[in-house]
Every structure is written in structure tokens, then in C-alpha cells.
Amino acid sequence: MRIGILGAGQLGRMLAQAGIPLGHSFYFYDTQITSTVAGLGESVVGSFDDRSALKAFAQRCDVVTYEFENVPCESAHFIESFAPIFPPPRALEVSQDRLLEKQFLQGLGVATPRFRGVCSEAELREACDALGLPCIAKTRRFGYDGKGQARIETTSDIAGAWSSLRGAPLIVEGFVPFSRELSIIATRDKGGEVSVFPLCCNTHINGILHRSELPASDVSHDLKAAARALIVRIMNELDYIGTLAIELFEVRGEILVNEMAPRVHNSGHATIDCMKSSQFENHIRAITGMPLGCVEPQSRAVMFNIIGSVPSLNDLATLPNARVNLYGKDPRPGRKLGHITLLNPSKAEEDMVDEITRKRQ
Ligand code: AMP
């Protein structure tokens, strides 16, 4: 099939790398095309609200998907008139707005941090009063990697938080004293079958994912079952097709949903090397109508993001269990340039790669 991807970043690259061996070809659409998807298919430049460019793109695709969640919902619905688009646009609607997302989850009986919608500084004060401090104010839309957020410790932080977020509509959340951050990733096919990957345990630096361990260690049977049940419930409710990721907080043995991403996810990159079928391959399988592949881990894996600049590959070449994956992007501070996955690593190997990747950011 000819698969159209809205977005031409590293997630699009890894989707194509998974789909080409299955006989598919790829067509990328983005506001600019970089070397990240070079050699993996055709590409076209256009804005995400240019209807004639979107129509010409969609008419040349058998199926369209997206690799980032800020594709305008109207554009996703527009594309539907010319080609099927998966995951369904409703998943975009729900996940683009943090307030709608939390209300949607609440409606399904899924536990989240306590929250309030806020449209003015006065409402922000009321929300802080109601939720208690500390709390976190987040812009409802366009936040990622910790951007568009302000932590409010005392009432004297409120005015500064309001102005730093520039008067945008906000969601305010009670601060969750989590013991760790987890994520759960699953894929649902056209027949409603769901394949759930094991939970990942994630560590962030400055709001950006640094390390992800798969499967997460020391997860109780109950917690695994709860995470599995919640992602299946959400996918069924959305009639989801494709891969979905849900970020979780573990607190006192329970899980709360932080946010969801209607796409493949950074915390699942290790699935490329430690699973028979990765999150990318299963996404491609789902949207093209194939049965899903096996998601039993073949080994424990720890992934580290390469951010800002690329370390010497010779330093890593001595590690037999390291798989390096670079995205073909120009170095820039804070930019995700690639990742390293360690399969069944020793503590010493993990510490070495942790240090190499940590100090480059
Ligand atoms: P987000 O962009 O919502 O994923 O938030 C970025 C990071 O901020 C998360 O990975 C958490 O480490 C932290 N964070 C977000 N929301 C909360 C919360 N309600 N309580 C505690 N920490 C949070």
C-alpha cells in the first residue's frame, strides 16, 4: 500500500523503516522536509491547513496516518473524504486539548490527577485554592516535553505563572507525588484486537525523556492488569486503529493518567530491538489491515535518548549489546537526534551510556 504520513520527523522515519519490509511505500507531508526521511519515500511540503495540498496528497494515498498530535482536527476530517485516516480523528480531538482529554478520561472512570479548567488569573487563584499547593498550570493546547507549564509552589507564584503562560486557557493539576513515571503502549487492529506492550519506566531530564526501561521492573500483577485494562477501555471507546501511548504516574501502588499520545511514542523505541514486532510495525500492520505481531519482549531493554549532540560512536562500539539509531538530524541543543538501546545490559554498561548521553544535553 501507499501510506501517507502527516509529519516527517523521526517517528515518520521509523514508521517507514518498519513498513518498507512489509512491502509498503511512503509519502510524507510536512511544513518542511528534512534529511530525516531522506531515501524512505516521496515527500511534499505544505501547511496543515492547505486544503488543496492536503487533497492532492490524500488522493495519492491508500491510507493516511500521522506522527504528531497537533495535526488540526479539521484537516484530519477533510482528509477522510479522500483516504481513510487512522488513528481516527476523534483521538486527535481528545488528545490535543489537555482539559478535554482529562474530562474524557474522567468520563470513562479512568483516574487522573485532580484538575480544573482556568481562563483568567482570578480563576487560577480559585483553582490553586481548591486543589491545594503545589500544583502545575499547563496550557490546554500545544504543550510538549514540559513546555507550556508552570509549577506553582506558593500563592506568590500565581501572577508570574499566569503571565509566563501568556493568558492562554489552562488546565491546573494538583501536584502528584509520584514514585515513578510509567507508560503503556498498545496497538488496536481493524477487528478490535488489542496487543499491549509491557509497561515502560521513564526518566526525564528538563521535561525531556532521557531513559526508558522495558519492561519496567517491580510492577505488581494488579498494576499491570490496571494499566492494560485502562488502555483497552480507552481504545475501544475511541474505536481506535493504530498505536496509542499513555503516560502514567505511579503513586502509592496506583496509576493515574498524565496524558495520552495518539501515535507511536518515544518511550517505545526499544521495541524495535527487543520485540519481534515493534510499536512501529504494529501501527503499520493495524492501519493496513494486517493481523498484529508478537509483543512479548525477547530481552530486557534500556533506551537512552541522544539529545543535543551525537556521542562518539567508537565509545559505544565496545558495547556488544548497544544498538544505535540516529535520525539524520542536524545537532541543536535540546533536539532529539537519536537513541541507543541496550539489550540485557549490565549495570556498568547502563551507567556508561547514561553518563555519555546525560552529559551531551
Ligand atoms: P507533561 O507535558 O504533562 O507530560 O508533563 C511533563 C512532566 O511534568 C511529566 O513527565 C512529569 O514529570 C511532570 N508533571 C506533569 N504533570 C504533573 C503533575 N500533575 N504532578 C506532578 N508532576 C507532573
Characterise this structure.
The protein is of the alpha+beta class and 361 residues long. It is 31% helix and 28% strand. It contains 12 helices and 17 strands. It has helices spanning 10-19, 51-59, 73-80, 89-96, 98-107, 121-131, 158-164, 221-238, 271-274, 279-287, 313-317, 347-358, and strands at 2-6, 25-30, 42-45, 63-66, 115-118, 135-139, 149-152, 170-174, 180-188, 194-196, 200-205, 208-214, 242-251, 254-261, 301-307, 322-326, 336-343. The strands form 3 sheets. Strands 9, 10, 11, 12, 13, 14, 15, 16 and 17 form a 9-stranded antiparallel sheet that branches. The protein starts with a strand and ends with a helix. The mean pLDDT is 95. Bound molecules: adenosine monophosphate. Residues 113, 136, 138, 143, 146, 173, 175-176, 181, 204, 207, 247, 258-259 line the site of adenosine monophosphate.
Short characterization:
With 361 residues, the protein is an alpha+beta fold. It is built from 12 helices and 17 strands.
Strand content: 25-35%
Q: What is the arithmetic mean of pLDDT?
A: 95
N-C termini distance: 39 Å
The small-molecule ligands in this entry are: adenosine monophosphate
Low-confidence stretches: none
Biggest beta sheet attributes: 9 strands, antiparallel
What letter string, H or E per element, gives the SSE order? EHEEHEHHHEHEEHEEEEEHEEHHEHEEH
Please tell me how large the radius of gyration is: 20 Å
State the total count of DSSP E strands: 17
Binned, the helix content reads: 25-40%
Tally of DSSP helical segments: 12
Structural class: alpha+beta
Task: Characterize the overall form.
Answer: globular
